[in-house]
Design a protein that fits this description.
- The protein is built from ten helices and twelve strands.
- By secondary structure, it is an alpha/beta fold.
- Strands 2-1-3-4-5 form a five-stranded parallel beta sheet, with helices on both faces. Strands 6-7-8-9 form a four-stranded antiparallel beta sheet.
- It starts with 9 loop residues before the first helix and ends with a helix.
Length: 256
């Protein structure tokens, strides 16, 4: 079934809806591969994310203006108008969070879109457990999920998808970003492996070393690239804990 044969929810079909009137779709999915779009549409709507689909950059700009989606997900490479240009124009004309998804063939275009203002670069085919937290963070949803976090010498901006250590930008892929955010929301607290894998992967049993590898990468980047005084300690048989040493500024460590 093509996306065209799958009508969008009635609340998303009206072009007269505004950003906050309850009729706008949660997501405008701009995916040139119609089979991939149909599969992604089913997953998003199954997760309660009202989604409208189109297939090229020019149509994306028209639909963004007509439907006022709460977020946009661009699949790269994007025909007619590329993802970077679409991102620039959406930011100027219809400011909403933009995500860009790509495999190896669209990586350069996706990177350019991130430089143009997209909040995240995600894997394509799309994984709902990776994208849903970014949609919540980009929107704010009236809670603290998009509030900036400060722990020790680490600053994390969920809405802008930025991490800074001592003022220097730290580049993290989506999953590592979400992992660090989870720790920063619970500083100095022991977090079990089961809790982490459920929160980030939606399961208690991902591949055996998946969590270990991601924690190691974040720990290494904090230490080697950021020269942070904070580290993620492994507590054997129990889980992990984000700890900040005596070299951290006491005011940020105390208020985080």
């Amino acid at each position: 079934m093509t996306p065209e044969a799958h009508p969008p929810p009635a609340t998303a079909a009206s072009g007269s809806g505004g950003p906050d009137d309850g009729t706008s779709p949660d997501l405008l999915l701009v995916e040139p591969d119609q089979e991939l779009a149909a599969k992604a549409l089913a997953r998003f709507e199954g997760a309660g994310i009202r989604t409208h689909v189109c297939h090229d950059g020019a149509e994306a700009l028209l639909q963004a203006g007509a439907l006022h989606p709460r977020a946009v997900l661009l699949g790269a490479p994007l025909p007619v108008v590329d993802a970077a240009r679409v991102t620039e124009l959406i930011a100027r004309l219809h400011p909403v969070p933009v995500l860009v998804g790509a495999g190896s063939e669209g990586a350069a275009e996706a990177t350019a879109a991130v430089a143009a203002g997209a909040i995240a670069f995600v894997a394509r085919p799309y994984r709902i457990e990776e994208i849903a937290p970014l949609l919540r963070a980009g929107r704010g949803e009236g809670d603290s999920s998009a509030a900036p976090l400060k722990v020790g010498d680490i600053e994390l901006d969920p809405a802008g998808f930025h991490v800074y250590v001592r003022g220097r930008s730290l580049q993290l892929p989506v999953r590592e970003f979400l992992l660090l955010r989870y720790f920063m929301e619970r500083p100095n607290k022991l977090i079990s492996r089961a809790e982490l894998t459920q929160a980030l992967w939606g399961t208690n049993a991902p591949e055996s070393n998946t969590l270990t590898v991601h924690v190691r990468r974040v720990r290494t980047k904090l230490r080697e690239e950021g020269e942070s005084c904070c580290t993620i300690d492994a507590i054997r048989g129990m889980g992990y804990r984000l700890e900040c040493g005596t070299g951290c500024l006491p005011d940020t460590a105390a208020t985080a």
